[in-house]
Amino acid sequence: MISFTLRTEDLTIEEISKYYVDTEHDRENIEFLKSNVTGLLIGSRGTGKTMLLKVAEKELLEKFEQNRTLPVFVSFSSAALIDNEEEKFKKWMLSKILFALQGRLKEVGILKTKNIFSLLLGKESEETDELAIKIKCFIERLEKSWKKDVIDEGTSIPFIDDIDYFKELLHSICTELSIKNIVFLFDEACHNFLPKQQREFFTLFRDLRDSKICCKAAVYPGITSYGTFEVFHDSIVKRVEKDILAEDYVEKMRDIIERQIDNKTYGILIQRGDLLDSLIYAATGNPRVLLKSVYEASEKLTSLKKVNVNSTLKDFYRTQIWNEYTKLGEKFRAYKEIVDWGRIFIEDKVLAETQNKNARSENEEDYDKQTIYFIIHKDAPELVKKAISILEYAGIVVLHTEGYKIRGNIYNRYQINMGIVAANTPVSDLSTYINKLRKGLSIKVVTEYGANSVAFKDLEQIKNNIDLDNGGIDLKELLNKPIDILDIYEYQKAEIKKEGFCKLIDILNASETDLQKAHLIGPVRARTIYNSSMNAVLEYIIG
Amino acid sequence: MIEELLEIFKNKLDDNISKSIKENDKKISEIALNIEVIEEISSHIDNDTQIILKEIIHDLISGLYSGLQALYRNAYISLRSGIELSLAYVYFLDHNYEYLFWKQDKYDVKWAVLENGETGVLNRRYLSLFCEDEFEDLFTLCRKIYRGCSQFVHGKYEYMYTVKHQIVDYNKNTLVEFLDMYYDLTNVVIALLLIRHSNSNLGIDETYKGIIEKNLKKLQLISTLEKIKEYWK
């Protein structure tokens, strides 16, 4: 039976070459991944992050003999149960990175010694063997440390105790083996990490950077905690999403399908090219969503009929995607209400208004233009931003333009999944509707949500309901921390302290109006202070 | 006289090894890594039949050594023993009765028994007890390796090296062909061990996870890989 492979993880290196479709945007991202700069690749689920990392890895390996840039794929898959007492989590990460590097060096055939430590300590000896065993045991002990009867008695291993020593080892390896630089590729870097661990990871990510070491991480939008790692200062950020307005969008997405199936099956699909294109637009640049919906709509790749395409579009984008989204409320329990609010906001507010705009009559302005865009003021409440970022994670909305200026105000422009926009209309012929939607699409037609939009008014209630205890001891500690940790001006700290807001919990228990009682604190500053506090706490709950 | 001949022969073999390594460094590194993986897996297996695993590793190393010396027929003989013993290892794990006799030299391992699609090891129903893959690529490769090695082992005229080359000399194409088969065999051994022991956490070293993943994907053993990866979490 013919089917699609939906996850790059399941592909062999040969299949990756066969299935990868090179677009201008993807090529830019691959060149960025291969470069010697620290950076993040951000994209929601199914947008092709792993594919890009794998292609970059493959291309670097193919040219390794000439360029001497070594790619090393690192996967952290068992982190959730390790705490960071005595920096154990950091040491565990460094150990994992070392072993991944050792594996890659052996794979490319340039490590002729039994282990990498011999390169720093001299010839192969029992000492280097012992060191390797010690680190391996350390990893095993840590990974089992959640079991009550296994206690880690503490291990002192220079290469993983001290980051400078670690870097020194890597430099020695580069020198000994004539490697120009090492590019570490972290796929779904933080997927298995707790927010606190994510922050540890990004601190390490930043600290590892040097002339011979470069790190790249693929992360989801919205749910990642960066801690003191400043995304836009400490790294270059690239987005993965494919642009549905690009001239070759349909051609490239069709190519993705074609490469996975035989000519006969593809022939069946393109017999009704208009129907196929409606599925392609509905997927809004997400290859995994496209392959899944094409598979369903074509009755397992056997035919493509309008009636099936329409029912798939309806079921997929009205039910399935939203069901998946709602499940996130169970995954991130502390955020359940924000997840639910996000859905209500999109369905009841944004989609309703989008539909009004798209259904304008001929005597109205912009009647011939269609939209799937909305904008949110940069000073919107932190909870709104968080809700939007969870929607981004689920692929329901995508950040289209950051810092979009209208009438002197700065907004972020978001793009709603086109399938969702279509499925929300009462139209029964969704495939025709989607093609019409795309034809008239204009990024200038947007629905606007200001900093204090009435659409956000339910948030006050949600704020009170957030389960602040869900983060455990760390959270309590955090709530009792002095407001000095906040990223606000010193005079602001002094003024609000005078009003009794000394700890984070004091601010969060208050309202923005309460904060305005402080001297020199007006509505805008109150919002900044409140957002700063809330963000610090939210990072601990979910990231 | 014989001493002199042996000395010449030895020098020739040493020369062959140098040439073989120099010209096939990359492939030999891949093979060496796979042998390390087999050693790593074996080190975590503790059962009565483990002695067979040691013998397999011995066959692999001696086969490689012979191949590099350009003693290609000897090399293929070791390889054939390697594939037979690999299947025998799995077979004996679930046929203790036969194993006990085999240890006493009262039972002969027959390829026909091992590869039997109904009762042997190359049997989807049997391997599905451990992992839910199709195993087609694995079975095809096992049979291809055995058939390929047998041509040399039985000394078929066309496969006699001296018929083609007259002397024991390094030949690039012959060695490449041998190393490719050797590499396939190491992949098969890794796959068989991982399938049969997929119910236990083998505590695989981080160093080898990437290469294991690559090898299993090559044989389309995706369910096996998924199952093993569960232990890595």
Report on the structure:
The complex is a heterodimer of chains A (543) and B (233). Chain A is 52% helix and 10% strand. With 543 residues, chain A is an alpha/beta fold. In chain A, strands 2-3-4-1-5 form a 5-stranded parallel sheet, with helices on both faces. In chain A, strands 7-8-6-9 form a 4-stranded mixed sheet. In chain A, helix 10 (195-207) links the parallel strand 3 and strand 4 (213-219). Chain B has 12 helices and no strands. Chain B is mainly α and 233 residues long. The N and C termini of chain B lie far apart (64 Å). The longest helix of chain B has 25 residues, at 172-196. The model of chain B has no long low-confidence stretch (mean pLDDT 89). Chain A binds chain B through residues 10-13, 73, 75, 77-78, 95-96, 99-100, 102-104, 106-110, 136, 139-140, 192, and chain B through 25-26, 28-30, 32-33, 36, 203, 205-211, 214, 217-218, 222, 229, 232-233.
Q: What is the element layout, followed by pairings?
A:
The complex is a heterodimer of chains A (543) and B (233).
Chain A lengths: L12 H7 L4 H11 L4 E4 L6 H14 L1 H4 L1 E6 L13 H20 L10 H4 L4 H19 L13 H4 L1 H14 L4 E6 L8 H13 L5 E7 L11 H4 L1 E4 L9 H12 L2 H9 L1 H10 L4 H11 L8 H26 L4 H23 L14 E5 L4 H12 L3 E10 L2 E8 L1 H6 L6 H10 L6 E4 L9 H7 L7 H7 L10 H9 L5 H5 L3 H4 L7 H19 L2
Parallel strand pairs in A: 1-4, 1-5, 2-3, 3-4, 6-9
Antiparallel strand pairs in A: 6-8, 7-8
Helix pairs in contact in A: 2-3, 5-7, 14-16, 14-20, 15-16, 16-17, 17-18, 22-26
Chain B lengths: L1 H22 L1 H19 L6 H19 L3 H22 L2 H8 L7 H5 L8 H4 L8 H18 L7 H5 L6 H25 L9 H13 L3 H11 L1
Number of helices of chain B: 12
Tell me, briefly, the overall form of chain A: flat
Largest sheet of chain B: none
Number of strands of chain B: 0
Rg value of chain A:
26 Å
Strand content of chain B: under 5%
Q: What's the CATH topology name of the largest domain in chain A?
A: Rossmann fold
Report the strand count of chain A. Answer: 9
Total of DSSP H or I helical runs spanning 4+ residues of chain A: 26
